[in-house]
Design a protein that fits this description.
Blueprint (H helix, E strand, L loop, with lengths): L6 E4 L10 E4 L2 H20 L6 H7 L8 E2 L2 H4 L5 E4 L3 E4 H8 L26 H10 L44
Antiparallel strand pairs: 1-2, 3-4, 4-5
């Protein structure tokens, strides 16, 4: 059935930092998206963006959070390579092109050698979550598959140790993250 074949797909591969987006959905929904992209592209042109309409429409597809790592030399302009998390090394000029039309929020460097502050609350504060994800970017339990920076387990970050006592078992679900 056509209705069951709806979806949005993003290519896994990338060519110089660009990916492909494919969508199949109800005609009115995609017509509304198409019209919205035209509105965004028009606003970008009004704000001085001189790229062609298709490029401006692509810019309007969405927002992304990029974690970009630069060495001190990259900040001074001596070297033109940055490392983008989940993507790898890219030219600094490419990063400037990606961010040139967006609102950019700069966050401070997290010093992993400095002890992280303690928190006693249900929700893990953002600065602590960021430090945990940088220190342990993947789930640390056997057979776990999460390597996402935003879906890993924040309160069980010590590697799993097999029980040594006979009959001792871990609570079901406590050895992997929910994501």
């Amino acid at each position: 059935m056509v209705r069951d074949a709806q979806g949005v797909w993003v290519s896994r591969d990338h060519e110089l930092g660009y990916k492909k987006l494919f969508a199949r959905g109800a005609a009115p929904d995609l017509d509304a998206l198409d019209a919205r992209l035209d509105v965004i592209a028009g606003k970008l042109a009004d704000w001085g963006d001189t790229d062609n309409l298709d490029v401006r429409r692509a810019k309007g597809v969405g927002r992304a959070m990029l974690s970009i790592h630069l060495a001190g030399a990259g900040l001074c302009g001596r070297y033109g390579v940055a490392r983008v998390e989940d993507l790898g090394p890219v030219l600094l000029d490419q990063v400037k092109d990606w961010l040139g039309h967006r609102n950019v929020v700069l966050k401070p460097v997290i010093d992993l050698n400095r002890p992280t502050r303690a928190a006693d609350c249900y929700e893990v504060p953002v600065d602590i979550a960021d430090a945990v994800h940088l220190r342990s970017p993947a789930d640390c339990f056997p057979h776990a598959t999460s390597t996402s920076r935003r879906r890993g387990d924040l309160d069980h970050t010590e590697p799993y140790k097999s029980p040594t006592r006979v009959g001792h078992r871990a609570r079901p679900g406590s050895t992997t993250s929910a994501g």
